[in-house]
Design brief:
10 strands, 2 helices, six-stranded mixed sheet, single chain, alpha/beta
């Protein structure tokens, strides 16, 4: 099994750390949804995870809704939480959690993500995260949707 999740294990120590972070986030983020993140599936096939760059790192998290034939939604993150460990994904460029149901707060650790450019937190059915992010952090983003800036109204750009 060694090297199965992460290709070229001996050359991808930072990617292994990203993988461990994602496994730590998995159950909290998914809530009542089941994510295929685990030892039986290569990291490149994990739902919502984008790996790119040289060396390879996790650069995107984005969960697209899949809809069944009869219009019933599936694969929506249900009642999950965005944990502080998200700040450990230091090469993350995109975080798109649009149209999911999340609870909790904006983890301040999001502001450690210096490479983050696209942040979409428009949540489904009126769900929202409590708290806010600093204006300086939000200004570095090219896209900031569903984000509350401390001292301002919700921002969508």
């Amino acid at each position: 099994m060694r090297g199965y999740l992460v290709p070229a294990l001996n050359h991808a120590r930072r990617l292994v750390a990203d993988c461990k972070t994602l496994l730590g986030l998995r159950d909290g983020l998914a809530g009542q949804t089941i994510l295929n993140w685990g030892a039986g599936t290569p990291l490149a096939q994990w739902a919502g995870v984008q790996v790119s760059g040289e060396p390879l790192r996790v650069t995107g998290l984005g969960f697209k809704l899949r809809v069944r034939v009869h219009g019933h939604e599936s694969h929506r993150l249900q009642f999950g939480r965005l944990a502080p460990a998200i700040g450990n994904l230091d090469q993350l460029q995109t975080l798109d959690l649009c149209c999911h149901k999340l609870l909790g707060t904006f983890p301040p650790e999001l502001e450690r993500l210096r490479h983050l450019r696209d942040l979409n937190l428009w949540l489904h059915g009126g769900a929202r995260l409590d708290g806010c992010l600093s204006a300086a952090f939000v200004e570095q983003l090219e896209v900031a949707e569903g984000v509350r800036v401390c001292g301002q109204e919700e921002r969508s750009s």
